[in-house]
Amino acid sequence: MRVLIVEDEPYLAEAVRDGLRLEAIAADLALDGAQALELAAVNRYDVVVLDRDLPVVHGDEVARRLAGAGDGPRILMLTAADLLDDKASGFGLGADDYLTKPFDMRELVMRLRALGRRPAQARPPVIESDGVRLDVFRREVYRDGHYVALTRKQFSVLHVLIGAGGGVVSAEDLLEQAWDENADPFTNAVRVTVSTLRKRLGEPQLIQTVAGAGYRFGPS
């Protein structure tokens, strides 16, 4: 999953980002409400972790705009405003969850994963294609009934490729969907990850390189 952290205290924002990355959750940062809206307009996020008392554009306005956009990200308000009326107004603005400061990082991760299991559009928890069975929520992969041990990044790349339904996915799209915004667009991380993923899945190969276009999941 990919998360946007909107927090105007840089130290806290960076601590949350680093903690999420340790849990294999790609996380970007926005230090004010305007930056949050800009990033949400160009990137696809599963959840926005949103402080309320933000500079430039208040967090309440950010929540209102994101919720009003329709098929947008889930919103988890993470704020020091802990009164019942504060929570009621937060949910009224479109928040899907509400966590007050101070908080435990483990609880934040659990809440994010719970929100990730409630996508805007229904997705099957288990995807099967060409003998590969990918369990999204258990993060398990089997090929022809045999368990395949994958790293979190390999799992994310495989999920994107299978989800394309046989279509070609460019390296740029893989980089956008399986990495965060700090990924170097000129890196060879995609090529290396796809190469190691092929080896893990075994023969015959199921990830095809389409010259000049990207990668496609399926038999050659």
From TrEMBL:
Response regulatory domain mapped to chain residues: 2-116
Modified residues (4-aspartylphosphate): 51
Keywords, comma-separated and alphabetical: DNA-binding, Phosphoprotein
InterPro entries, sorted: CheY-like_superfamily, OmpR/PhoB-type_DNA-bd, Sig_transdc_resp-reg_receiver, WalR-like, WH-like_DNA-bd_sf
Gene3D superfamilies on file: 3.40.50.2300, 6.10.250.690, Winged helix-like DNA-binding domain superfamily/Winged helix DNA-binding domain
OmpR/PhoB-type domain residues: 124-219
DNA-binding region: 124-219
Record protein name field: Two-component system response regulator VanR
Protein's organism: Kineosporia succinea
Record lineage: Bacteria, Bacillati, Actinomycetota, Actinomycetes, Kineosporiales
